Each structure stands twice: as C-alpha cells, then as structure tokens.
Amino acid sequence: MEYVLFAIIAYLLGSIPSALIVGKVGYNIDIRQHGSGNLGGTNTFRVLGVKAGIIVTLADILKGTLATLMPVFFDIDVYQLAIGIFAVLGHTYPIFARFKGGKAVATSGGIILGVNPILFVVMVVTFLLSLKISKYVSLSSMITGVISFIVSIFFGDIGLMIVVGALTLFVIYRHIANIKRIINKTEPKIKWM
User: Which residue among 74, 125, 130, 134 has the highest number of C-beta atoms inside a 10 angstrom radius?
Assistant: First the structure.
C-alpha cells in the first residue's frame, strides 16, 4: 500500500510543470509555444534565458530528490529509487500539462541525488564537461547517462545499476529526434557557455 501511495504522490510531484509555471508567472509566456515546445530546462534556457533556465533546472532536480526522499521523511521502508522513477514519469508525462513534459534529464539526476550524492556529482561534472566540449545539451545528457551507468557499477548496488541503466535508456529514447538532428548537423548548439 505504501508503494502505491508514494508512487502516486511522486508522480504528481513530478507532474508539476516548472517550465510552464516560470514562463507564465515570470515572463507571461507559455513555453510550450516557443522553441522546441518542451517543458524542460533546455528549452527554458533557450527561450527565457539563463536565470529562468537555472530556476527550472533546479526545480526539476528537486522534484526527483523530494520524491526519492519521501520514504525517508516518513520513515517507511520502501525502495527509494522505485518511488523516484514515478517522479521522472510525472515530469515526462505530466497530468497537469496534457502529458507533454520534459525529457527526464534533470529529474533523473534529482532521484540520484536523493540516494547517491557522489554519483550525482559525477553526473554534474560529466554533463558540464561534455557540454563545454560538444555544445550540445542533448548529446551531453546522453553521455552523462552512459558514464553514470558505468560509474554506478563501482558502487556495487544492483538496484542503483538497474535504475541508472533504465533511466539512461529512457533519456536516450526521449532524445531520438535530437540524435537525428545531431547527425544532420541541425541540432542547435548552446551559445552561453
């Protein structure tokens, strides 16, 4: 019963459309009608700027972290990563935004932060280095997933490896259109780094 309750709460938490809220409240813009139309940090950076992008990215990370830490807060013995996955699903398919959300990168990072801060630091460093070199957010996100999976093996936690592997595959799946654009050299590069 606890799993069902926490899964529902995590999904609803993940469904909070940070980019939509920041765009409408702070800029009077529906972010879904600009840029890629995606409700994630990358589109927010491109459409609304660095400040809004940082706020949305941090909010999306926090959704995953809070969902993963809920069992700890309530002292209930359930597998935290299993609960965190529902926040990722909520972020990607949000009930509050017609099931069209982000690409799962920041919220995935957030659930890792909730259970393994060291791996989260590895993820952030990998992402920033990849981004500095490639200038592609999408490519950096996928590289980060692969590197994170490899690093997760060294922690000796089978559940962590399975979840990081599954999230990596999900992030790559969510970026299929980006992969095609990278191959065709039509994927936009960032200009602010």
Answer: 130
